[in-house]
What does this fold into?
Amino acid sequence: MSSAAKLDVLGVGNAIVDVLAETDDAFLAANGVTKGAMTLIDTPRAQALYAAMPPGIEASGGSAANTMAGIASLGGKCAYIGKVSSDQLGEVFAHDIRAIGVDFHSRPFTQGEPTARCLILVTPDAQRSMNTYLGASSYLDESDLDPALIASAQITYLEGYLFDRPDAKAAFFAAAKIAHEAGRKVALTLSDAFCVSRHHAEFTQLVGHVDILFANETEAAELTGEKDFDAAVKALAAKCPTVCVTHGPKGSVIAANGQIHRIAAAPVAKVVDTTGAGDLYAAGVLYGITAGLDLPAAGRIGSIAAAEVISHLGPRPQKSLKAMLPRASEL
Amino acid sequence: MSSAAKLDVLGVGNAIVDVLAETDDAFLAANGVTKGAMTLIDTPRAQALYAAMPPGIEASGGSAANTMAGIASLGGKCAYIGKVSSDQLGEVFAHDIRAIGVDFHSRPFTQGEPTARCLILVTPDAQRSMNTYLGASSYLDESDLDPALIASAQITYLEGYLFDRPDAKAAFFAAAKIAHEAGRKVALTLSDAFCVSRHHAEFTQLVGHVDILFANETEAAELTGEKDFDAAVKALAAKCPTVCVTHGPKGSVIAANGQIHRIAAAPVAKVVDTTGAGDLYAAGVLYGITAGLDLPAAGRIGSIAAAEVISHLGPRPQKSLKAMLPRASEL
It folds into this structure.
């Protein structure tokens, strides 16, 4: 039996600063950018793409970090493990995540690789195409895990993007083991269909160690091989106790204990930038679960959080999500 | 007689990356921030204020640099002289100003001081309170001036903020001399009432070397000692051939050749952040003058450019200003 948790959620992911710029589809085509995906880029490609990009704004990002920012904005207690460098963008990342109340004390990387950045091109249809230079973030390994911190959180939330490197893969299995031995739960987001495709066997293995799984429809299809949405949800539900699959403007489905809950999307006046949509959906669901709400209510908080983040440019909430929630009886 | 100019405008100023965050008035009071002003801060103050600030976004700024970005967005040809460091924020600044088509080749500062940043707190009334850590930007001196570049521009535009350091003061007088010897014009913005107050005698002297002067109402009052708006404009007009004084929501007044032109502000659905309002007004006026338009038409372009920048968070235009202009016959 576990003791009372000090933290609601601990996130582990790639600590990234986003560089956001608005472009058109012609720019994506001319520069060989895969629309809607997350593509890993090396230094020469990062330099060339940045040189071609219009002026941007910089904002702290990183999938699991965005989720922690969302949970903090909802009023939850959380912490984050991720690797920045001891440079200006690393300071920006650390400032922003701490400023919203997320505990962040990962020691910075000091051996040369700069803080990770993601060149995000937002097209007029609000789609984001992400080009990630991993830099310092890719040096996260098992030694960066704080077992006491993991044991202190109701849920440890792992970001699939980190799976692109062997050391981080090992760290994920280690984190799941520590959490479960402490009587805690483990959550995972599949992050990106191409990432799932690159590491299919290992993702399938990791899902067997996960209590709560997040995916969007293309990731669910990629992992299960089922092209039909409901069939993919069913296949995931056979592997994992709680499965949350987003379905774009249609909302999401949460499958658990043999039940399927269909959750509507929350209304948005104008979708500006879908960056962070899945991250904030996960924030709402994880907040709801750790606050002791039932799964449909948790899903509806996910819809509200996702709706806020897609209504503006940038990957994290700009308004207090807590202030946007209806009374518990109305969820 | 001067030869045909290759450039419309050359800007000289503090090369700064802005860190923008929304706060309330209580935050300004609790942290000793002077509302609406530009305050110079040192390293410990910058660290303490940043630690207290909410999460922000980073965007390239700097008064004269914003003006050059505005002129480029209007379709003008311009260049910029300012000092960044060889660090990440320096790369961001250089990328953003070049990406919009401004020629920028100032050699970076490599001796330790980081790129300048300005912590800008935007309150719900859309006022911005600026806290500037000058860093590398303050090392600009006469050796950074390219005489051929100055001689190639119809107008060299100087930013009053730079006046806070002796080397830059000397550089300003040198730049004005080079420009005039090449048969070109010199423009100056007073930038900030507190800055005018700190360097009153030297500003008064410099205005005697300037062809086009920009000020807002408080700066005009500070330099002339006239509290009445029209009296201050008249006093400035006695010192300088063309005087452009902004008057907030009332618009602006341009005084030249014994005539006073009153220019209305352009309508804005919602004022979000007044950062860059004066910079973009100057962009419109300078673009109009160098395009050969009359002063009232130039002033109206200034109003249009200012209206765009105050409708969103951040100091530079987000839309093409050229596309927002009416036909010349309707200006």
Remarks:
- Chain A has a mean pLDDT of 95.
- The CA atoms of residues 24 and 123 of chain A lie 5 Å apart.
- The first strand of chain A starts at residue 7 and ends at 12.
- Residues 166-181 of chain A form the longest helix (16 residues).
